[in-house]
Design goal:
The chain is of the alpha/beta class and 508 residues long. Among the domains are: 146 residues, no CATH class; 180 residues, 3-Layer(aba) Sandwich (Uracil-DNA Glycosylase, subunit E), CATH 3.40.470. The protein is built from 19 helices and 18 strands. A 6-stranded mixed sheet has the order 3-10-9-8-7-6. A 6-stranded mixed sheet has the order 11-13-12-16-18-17, sandwiched between helices. Helix 3 runs antiparallel to helix 8, helix 5 packs across helix 7 and helix 16 crosses helix 17. The N and C termini lie far apart (88 Å).
Amino acid sequence: MNARLVQSFDEWRAATREFIARRVPPESVEWSSQDGDGDLFSSALAQPRDADPASASASASASAPVDDATTVAGAGACAAAETGMTAADGAAPAFRLPRQLMELLEAAACFSAADRWAFLYKVVWRWQLGEHDVISPADPDGSRLHGMVKAVHREEHDMHAYVRFRERNEADGAPRFVAWFEPTHNVLPQVARHFARRMGNISWMIATPTATMMWDGETLHAGPALMRGAADIDDAGEALWLTYYRSIFNPARLNADLLRSHIPSRFWKNLPEGAIVPAMVSAAANGERRTGQTETVGRRSGATTIPISAERAQPERDEPTTLDQCRRCELWKNATQAVPGVGSEKARIMLVGEQPGDQEDLAGLPFVGPAGAVLERAMKEAGVQRDSIYLTNAVKHFKWELRGKRRLHKTPAQREISACHVWLEEEMARVKPEVIVALGSTALKSILQDGSATMKSVMDAPLQHDGRWVVTVYHPSYVLRAPDEATRQQAYNVIVEGLRQARKLLGD
């Protein structure tokens, strides 16, 4: 068993060169750190005590060439032939790691895990054996490697966002600004370089439970951990910030769940506003939402305090008079246009689909894409003329998500179906169909105004609703995405039979 004590990425890299050259497999190496692998900020402390941001940034990759790969001492004639490099003084041939892998390894080395050095060595070992899929997220080890890197980058982002500096008197030579943070991973050196660039020649210090970084305006200094109280100083600017924070707080617009999801709970204890937010949330729940109410609400007779929800405490707006003006839900923001129904204003049969698709959104007409072609074929087979029916959708705006360069359909939520029902009601009142064919479950829920309605319970036979017959069939798009030919044919037959049944209900 080969034991090796490492406290930084550079030490691990040097040890890895040695073990790879000797062809030592991962299971024969025992990696350890001086503090039981608790050296969360050892890479920072391993640098010179005085280093400017540029030199500190370069120190982690000082031994790496500037081309697209990093040369590491290794073993194996195949690797030497691949790089065309010859080792000097009888050393083992060299092999090359791509820059992408070296960047992943260096970032993952900041991840706080007891076995991180052993795991990174395993990755390098597999690479030099020719298993290059080890850096793919589809590989188990590659997946863990990318997950570690993602967590480290997230921690850097969080530290940029949630470090709060307090200002102190700089006359005694101490840093002007002081902050305390409790990171999960070893990101203090990278974050220190970020703040050195952002804050210019203003001196500051960031203390953590494990290490400290200080900037004197020209040079970064790494030091040992300090007590939490080192950052507890009186700051008049912080008091001003809290006063401003209270003044812009609107209880009527409070969404406590969203607030908690945006800022993880572990950061609140070190944020100055964290001390006042709980009381403000509690006060909002106990009646202070009236702060955001409209004047017309405040002038109502009765009790001085009027309990009202945040949703109702909004300015009164005129209801939209046309579909193009509709803002009843958020779907209009990402849609090209609203897509109204088309067809005969005296149609006895109305076909109701789910929502416009990509082509319908661009054309402004329902069922002009692939699903429309399936429906056209089914109507012809059932003997239903397109110009004799009214064709529309339960939701009038296209709901989609981006996949590459394509806009892919996304099923509307029940609140969006309910918000758009007013337009379907207007169409039914105007056309007065005797039979409505619901194409899919979304259409069925909108027609029946029942969010729990399922196709399975009503597909066997038509039902009466508000004086009309309702026939339920599959949506034509289901025929296109069915997993096999048998399922596709069965779904298509259901649509054809449903259209025939609609004709029979009219006595045709």
